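INPUT
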Amino acid sequence: MEWEIVIGIETHAQLSTESKIFSGASTNFGADPNVNACEVDIALPGVLPVLNKKAVEKAIQFGIATGARVNRQSIFARKNYFYPDLPKGYQISQFENPVVEGGEIKISVDGEEKIIRLTRAHLEEDAGKSLHEDFVGMSGIDLNRAGTPLLEIVSEPDMRSAREAVEYARHLHTLVQWIGVCDGNMQEGNFRCDANVSVRKKGEKEFGTRREIKNLNSFRFLQQAIEFEAQWQIEQIEDGHKIIQATVLFDPDSGETRLMRTKEDAHDYRYFPDPDLLPLNIDEKWFTSVEQAMPELPLAKIERYVKDLGLSAIDAQSMVASKGISDFFESAISQIPESETRKISKLVANWINGDLAAALNKEQVELVDSPVTAKMIGDLAQRIADNTLSSKLAKQVFEGLWNGSGSVDEMIEKEGLKQLSDSSELETFADQVIAANPQQAEDFRGGKEKALNALVGQMMKLTKGKANPAQVNEILRKKLA
Amino acid sequence: MFDKSLKELASSLASKDFSSFELTQAYLDRAKELNTSINAFVTIDEEQSLAQARSADQKIAQGNIQALTGIPIAHKDIWCAKGWMTTCGSKMLQNFKAPYNAHIIDRFNTAGSIIQGKTNMDEFAMGSSNETSFFGHVKNPWDSSRVPGGSSGGSAAAVAARMTPAATGTDTGGSIRQPAALCGISGLKPTYGLVSRYGMIAFASSLDQGGPMARSAEDLAILTEVMVDYDMRDSTSLKRDPVNYSANLETSIAGIKIGLPKEYFSDEVSPDVQKAVASAIGEYKKLGAEIVDVSLPTSPLSVAAYYVIAPAEASSNLSRFDGVRYGHRAKEYKDLNEMYAKTRAEGFGAEVKRRILIGTYVLSHGYYDAYYIKAQKIRRLISQDFAQAFEKCDLILSPTAPGTAFGIGEKASDPVQMYLSDIFTIAANLAGLPAMSIPCGLDDANLPIGLQLIGNYFDEARMLNAAHMYQKATDWHLKQAPLK
Amino acid sequence: MSLEKKDVQRAALLARIEITETEANETFEQLGKVFDLIEQMKIINTDDIAPMAHAQDISTRLRDDVVTEKDRHEEFQEVAPATERGLYLVPKVIE
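OUTPUT
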C-alpha cells in the first residue's frame, strides 16, 4: 500500500514595523511586561483601532514578490473567542476579503524544481503572551505582543514530503527577509509555522482528514513533526482507526505530536466585518509607489547575474541565497571596472562561497560582521585575475585580511607576494627543475601526463609559490616537447 | 440662573454677574438636592468640578472667554473622563476610574467648560427607559412615576429638571431623541462620523453617535460645534470643513420643503401625539415651509434589522469585559472559564445579557447570512428610501416617539414592547443621518411630546435652523418640568 | 429558523456567560419574542441588494508607522483586579 503525505503550511510572519498594526505602541522585543501595551492594546473601554500604513505596504510587497493578486479592496473582520492574551475578546483579522490572494513560491528539492501555490496572505494582529512558570495555579499575562502586525501566509496543500515542506518554509523565510517585510527571527517568534498534515493512498483524489501541528519555530522541528505525524496517521489508518480533525502540538523532547486541549469554541469564531474599521482601499498610485520601492527580487537578480555578469546558473543561485549575500556580492563587484566584471565575477562568487563562507562558519561570524569586506574580496579577485597573485598565495592573503593585517595591495607589497610571471625568470627556473629531475622529464616525454605535476610542484617550491601555475605548466611543456 | 440659556450664562460670566465657581456651586447644590429623588446622576464630584471652575475663572479674568468657558455640563456616564468613575450604568464598571479622556471630553475641557458630573443611563446604553441601570432607575421630572426615556435618561432628566444647563448623550437607536422627547427638552444626533467615538464605551459601533442635549436648538448649536471634530484615533471619524452651527439659526425657512413620511403617521401614534405634531406642522406652514408627502417603505422593518445589527456588534464589543484587566471580577471560581462565566453573569444585567445572547446567536455559524447579512441589506434599503425622500424634501418631520412617558415598570417585562418605543428613531441611525427632537406639546396628563426632524447627511445647520425658528414662534421648549 | 432552548445554552457558552436552568428558560421565552420580531425581515426580498456596513462609502484611515505611545502600564494597572510584577494574573491557562 503506497501512501501519500499531503502538507499545507500556514505561516505567521511578524511584520517589521516600528509600531503596532492598530495602535502607536512600540513593537520592540524584550521590554518589561506590559510596557509596550497602550490603552488600545489592552482594550480599555472606548478605545478604537487605526491601521498602520507600513503594515499594509509590507503586505503589498509580499503580494508582488510572490506574483499574487493584491486586492484593491479588502475588509478587516473580527474573529471572536475568549482567551486571556486576547484583550478585546476578538482578534482583528481578515476573513472573506484578504489583502493578498494567490501567488507562489518556487522550491527545489534534490535539484528538482516545484511550485508551491499560495492560497492567500492576510493582515491581522498578534495576541499577547501567557506565562506559567512563576505562578502557582495562575498565569501571568503580558500584552506587549498584543497588536503586533502579522501577515498570515497560507499555502495550498501542495507539499508531498517533510523535505518539501521544509524547503518551502526556508524559501519563504528567505523571501520575507529579502523584501524587508519580516526579520525572520525565529527565536523571537517572528516567523512561526503551523503544518496541516493528512495522508491518503496514492492515486486517491480526495484528501484525507488533516490534523494541524501548531507553532513550529524551527525547520528541524518542522521536519520532525511532520514525519512523526504522517507516520502516526498511516499507522492509525492501517490499524482501522479514523483520523479525527484536531490541533496538535509537537514535543521536541519526545519527537512526537500530541493532541492539544482545543479552545472550546474553536469552531465558531462568528466572523463579521469590523465596524470600527472601514474597507482598506489600495489605489493605483499607492500600489505603484510601493512596487517601485521594492528591492530587486532573487529571480531578477539571477537573470541579471547570468546575463550581464556571465555567472553560471548555479553560481548565480548561490549568490542570491540571501539578501545579505547578494548585497555583499554586488558590493564586491561594484569595485571592479565594468570591462572586467564578466571575467572576475565567477572568482568573486567562488571566494564568497568557498573560503569566506568556510571562515565565517568556523569562527561563527555573521556575514555583516565579516572582517573581510566586500571591497577586499573584490580587490583579491582582481589581483588574481590580473596575475599579480597566484591562487595559492591568495589564500595566504585572505588569512591576512581576516586577521586585519591590512588591505590586499598592502599585504602583497609587504610580504612580497607578487606572483612571478616574468617568462625569462620562469624559463631559468624551469631549466633548473628539468635538470634536477631527469627521470620525471623522461617519463613525461614518454607520455606520462602525471609526471608533469612533480615538475610543476618543484617549480612552485623553487619560486616559493609565487609562480603562476598555468604559466609554469605551459613553459615546462614547451621545454619538454 | 437656572433658566438662563448657554448664551445668557456666557454673557453673565463675562460681565461678572457671577463667577464660574458660584455658577458651578449653585448647580451642584441643586443637582445634589434633586438627585435623591430623580437619580439623574451616578457621580457628582464637587472637588473636581470646582477645581475646573477655578481655572475657568482664571481664564475669564484674563479675558480668555469662549462660548462655554466656565459653564458646567453634565456628561452621560458612557464617556471616559480621566480621574472620573465611568460606569456605563453597569455593575461591571462600578469602580472603574477611567485613565484617559474621551475625545469630546478633551474638546469640552479645551472649550473651558466644567464637568458637572456623570449622568445615569441604561446599562451599556441598552434600553429606552433608563430602567436597566445598575444604579437604579431615573425618574421623569414631569412625573416621578414615569420613565424619562433612555438610554440617555439621566442627561435628559438632569436638563429637564434644571440640574445642569446642558448635557451630552449618545444615540444608537434613539437614545438622545427619545428621552429628549419624553422629558420635554431638545436633543441632537449628528451625522454618523462627525462626533468622535474615541472614549465612548462602545455599544453598536456602526450606529453609536454622541450628541448634545439642552433646552433649545440655540444651545444645541453651541454644543454641537464643540462636539463635532475630526479625531484621527477614530477610523470612522470624518474630516470635514468646520461648520458654524449657530451662524444661520435665524435664516428664514420660507420655501423649505418638509417631508412627512406616511409610515410615521400611522395608528401606532397616540392621539395626543398626533394632535401636537399636527399643530407643529401648522406652525411650520406659518413659517413658510412647504409640506410634502414622502414615503419610507422599508422603515417598518427598521426595528427588526436594528435588533440584529446592534446586538451583534454589542456582543462582540462587550467581550472585553472579562475580569482580567479592569472592571468586576467574580470572587469565586475554580478555573479560567468559570471566572469568565461568573464575572460576566454577575457584572451584566438581564437586558445586556439578553442582547449579548441575541448577538452571539445571529453571528453564529449557519445563521450569519439569514440574520446579519439580511439586516445589513435592509439597512441599505432604508438608506435608499431616505435618499429618494430627500430628492423631494429638505427635512423630514415626524413624531419622535409613538407616545409619551410611560410608567416605570410598565414595559420592563416585555422587551419587544420596549424596543418599539424607538420605532421612529431607529431608521436614522441605520442610515447614519442626523436627526433631532424638540418639544412640541403636552398631552392630557401634562407630559411632553417630542417632534423629530431628520436631515440629509451633514445638514445639521439647516435642521437646527428649522428647529430654532419653530422655537422662536412657540414656547414648548420653555415649559418647566413640575418636578412631581 | 426558530430558536431552540439548546441555542440559548450554546450562545451562553460562546459568550462566556453563566446561566442557570431557570434563567435559560426565562431568556428562551423572551428571546423567542425578539426573534418573532426579527423574523419580520423575511417579508422582503433582498436578493439583489448589497449589505450596507457603513453610511459613508469611504476607505479606512491609515496611520504613519511611528511610535506615539509611552509606557503607562502602572497607571493602567491601577484599575486591574490582579497583577504581579507588571503581569495581569488569571487562573492558570491550560493549553
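end of record. The interface with chain A takes residues 13-14, 16, 53-54, 58-69, 71-73, 76-77, 84-95 of chain C (CB under 8 Å).
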